[in-house]
Amino acid sequence: MTHRAKTIKPICLIILDGWGLSAQIDGNAIRLAKTPHMDNNYKIYPNTRLDASGEAVGLPEGQMGNSEVGHLNIGAGRVVYQELTRINKEIKNGCFKFFPNSVYQ
After folding, report:
1. Domain that holds residue 91
2. Cα dihedral 53, 18, 41, 80 sign
3. Is 22 designated active site?
4. Is the alpha carbon torsion for 25, 27, 30, 34 positive or negative?
5. Which residue, 54, 67, 76, 100, shows the most beta carbons closer than 10 Å to its own?
6. Whether 69 contacts 60, CB under 8 Å
7. Distance CA 69, CA 58 (A)
8. CB under 8 Å, gap of 24 or more: what pairs does 38-45 form?
9. How many whole angstroms separate alpha carbon 57 and alpha carbon 63?
10. pLDDT tens-digit series, residues 17-55
């Protein structure tokens, strides 16, 4: 029996920082611009869209993301909950314990 080695094909991760995708046309510079190269790339190459705000990147629901948060989540390969979201999540699921303290009463 002959086994063929799998060919490893190159892959390229391209992050277009600030390039948002939205169906809205009014006030949307990317939708209003002529982008033939990008339009063609979307047609012929595999691609995906990532959510870059709110709970998808560890921020509170509806909060706009930023470069730092986006790159942190992409680099980690998972949702990295930011401080406020992490604390609220731990309070909700009972992991965050409150200790009596006269300073905060």
Report:
1. 51-104
2. negative
3. no
4. positive
5. 54
6. no
7. 8
8. none
9. 10
10. 888 888 899 999 999 999 999 999 999 999 888 888 999
Specify if 13 maps to a domain: no
Q: How far apart are CA 50 and CA 78, in angstroms?
A: 12
Q: Is residue 2 part of a domain?
A: no
- In a domain, residue 57? The reply is yes
Rg of the Cα atoms in the chain: 21
Domains in the chain, number: 1
- Which amino acid is it at 21? L
Residue 18's nearest CA partner among 10, 29, 9, 6 is 29
Determine, yes or no, domain membership for 29.
Answer: no
Locus of tokens 């790159």: 71
Start-end of H helices in 35-76: 36-44, 67-76
Query: Could you tell me where the DSSP H helices lie in 1-105?
Result: 29-32, 36-44, 67-76, 83-92
Q: What is the pLDDT of residue 11?
A: 86
Distance of CA 10 to the CA centre of its chain: 23
